[in-house]
From TrEMBL:
GO terms for biological process: response to zinc ion; transmembrane transport. It is found in: Cell membrane. It is a multi-pass membrane protein. This is Metal ABC transporter permease. One of its GO terms (cellular component) is ATP-binding cassette (ABC) transporter complex. The lineage of its organism: Bacteria, Bacillati, Bacillota, Bacilli, Bacillales. Pfam families: ABC-3 (PF00950).
Amino acid sequence: MSYAGWILLTASLVGLSCGFIGVLLVLRRMAMMADAISHTVLLGIVTAFLVTRELSGIHMLIGAIAAGLLTSVLVQWFHARGVQQEASIGVVFTTLFAIGVVLIATKVGNAHLDVKHTLMGEITFIPWEKIELPLIGEIPEAVFILSIVLIVVLVAILAFYKEWKITSFDPALAASLGIPAVLMHYVFMSLVSVTTVAAFDAVGAIMVVAMLITPAAAAYLWTDRLSVMLILSGLFGVISAITGYYIATWLDTSISGSMAFSTGLLFAFSFLCSPKHGVIAKFIRPAETKLSA
């Protein structure tokens, strides 16, 4: 595959994984958790580096996932004790992210670990960091990891589709039916953490947040069916990735930033043109009503 092809495949895998997970985040009204976890994983990455003094390896993934789960537990703990959820998210993620930034500035030293890379990522390096797989050959490590994450996300959503649907729309009904809503919440937060971490190094925090929230929000405007929303959100993520790449090539600018920008363009189109919730449709319907009257 060509250099550009690997970049597009990597970004598309991010768009699919984040798109699917993002639907459940939006339906659960927890969209800002995506922003929180995508920033607080920095603390886990820095902590793992300080312990091992190595910039690559499974320990980095474990540290980042642990930070994501810590974020979720702290937010839930504060919320259960009367703090509004939005305030809990804001307090936890800014504090943990700030600790990560301070540790980078004071403890990391000359290691190649910086805040700019954390925010924007560097997807152009992806095709050069390859691993050898039996029967397949050399592929970028990020493509391999993101493919596994996508499979895990798909299996988890399909295997517990009914449970996700009920706990997202009516947690009280889920509890009355014997569905462990709290357990499902932490399983879901684990999926969010794994997906965020997998995409984090390749595309940075800004694109992760954009891909987790915006395609799902756009899909929400087009349909009321969860299954269709999941498909549309994943599709919108892929479209944003491809469109953003060509915008970046045209303008000679940040690829990840352009992909995040493309999600905003797609949402704007959906906001204007969706048949039920779109601005244009809302203007047309009153006019049709007056004509029929």
